[in-house]
Amino acid sequence: MARRFQFVSASTPTERVSSESRKSNHSHVMRHVHARKRRLRTQRYQDELINAGMEVDQTISQIGLCSPPIPRFASSGDPFSSSARPLSSEEYFLLDYYIQVVLPYSIGHCRLFDFAGDHQNQMLREWVGLAVNDDVFMTVAILLSTCRYILHARPGDPFFTRMVLCYQQISLRSLRLEIESTPTCINAMSVAKALALAIDEMNSGEQSIARKHLQGVLAMVQFSGGPRSIGLTSLLERMYHIFLRELRLLDQRIEQIAAGW
User: Annotated region Disordered: where (predicted)?
Assistant: First the structure.
């Protein structure tokens, strides 16, 4: 790859460089340094996704999971045809399994949906729809969730155990880098990713870790001026309020235990 050089002109090169010029040069250098770091982070993340997909490719045919044929969506009106990046056949398998199996189960067993309404359409629009437009959210909300669900039916399965750890690592690292690099640009997608991580930890029985994720969600929402200011969808806002009540109830219960109740 050819190197590119940036020349900075100086009107009087023999004279001492002014402080203003030094600041300008320093800013220019730092911009390039940060840009290079961002490119490296992006490349590392993409490499991890590729490696994860290759591992799925090598073992998915050996695990004996049954699923209907997974279509290659061709219609321009189909939401999955405009995903943030092309999905591998294995990722389509996990996405299809999520929609056909995990999603109906979640709607039937989660108190987020304990009232009348078209919950499946809302989940497809406000949860799966977000995932097809963001690599990291696809990883944590769909791929990780599906692997976790299958692992419940196949406890101790070495392949899905590895994939859960891999997807968790990718999701945590990506969310941390996102918050650290642009702390003032927290948005609904950032909250959705943290909520998905919290849900995953709760589903795996790691309540203390889930609680830390939820505290992070609360901090992000409060920092941004509330759920309406950050632009949460109705589903994300409902999740936020339910978890807020859960967190407060948990805090109250801890105080009661400490007081000997």
Answer: 1-33
